[in-house]
Design goal:
Blueprint: H1 9-21, H2 36-47, H3 53-62, H4 79-99, E1 103-113, E2 139-146, E3 152-157, H5 163-174, E4 181-185, H6 194-201, E5 207-211, H7 222-236, H8 242-257, H9 260-265
Helix pairs in contact: 2-3, 5-6, 7-8
Amino acid sequence: MGEHQVLSEAEQAAVRQAVLDHIPCDLGLSGQLWTRGQIGELIFKLYRVRFTEPGVGKYLKRWGLTFQCPDKRAVEQDPEAVRVWHEETWLAIRAKAKAENAEVLFGDQAGVLSGQVTGRTWGGKGATPIVCRTGNRFSVNAMSAISTKGRMHFMVFAESFDAKVMCRFLDRLVGHFDRKVHLVVARHSAHRSKAVRAWPADHKDEIELHFLPSYSPELNPDELVNADLKRSLPHTHRARSQTELAAETRRFFHRRQRQPHIVRGYFGSQHIRYILDE
């Protein structure tokens, strides 16, 4: 195609905007992800012009579009609730915490399974590398909370996550502070249970709970801690028992506690930066 442009500038702008604003099935094509072939089909559908995939690729490069892994969103997410969180709720939490000279933390829980292997490794072409893991099935759970100052607090436990565990975590958390804590968490059933709601009510001067919009994990920086944990453990552990897996999980959290710059980095991702914005 070279520098010769078969599509006019207006037609190019229309196709580019369609790709940014819609998924293929919105426009009568198949699937939810754009490929060069799909964009070629869209161009043909709109302007009856056929392009090869390399030809479409040249347009995409000119338009500043790159091939990326998409963020996932639950169809149940309420965009209005997310807007209210950004424009009203979060600003009110931050203002109140500042007025009280309180600490704001974001918390979440995670489960770690035995035999979990994520990531990639090098190997010979056509010969898949083998990573040995125990065939026994066991798991551990963890609850953590982080702040923009790089502080991290955690608790590793073997039992299922429930209201009793959450209250135990809250009790441990407030013990680390000599001022009030505002803790932001997801709307997990344990977080919203009667017992958990009663605990802060009995410790009003020590802690206050706030809930993110439903189905909005991208708003919680502690989700990145969980991802980091699950990405890091396969590189460091070959646990053969629940006790060993719990020990490796604690080592991960202790290591991150000594690396506040990494904890602060969790707040730098695209959907989390709102926390740092004044």
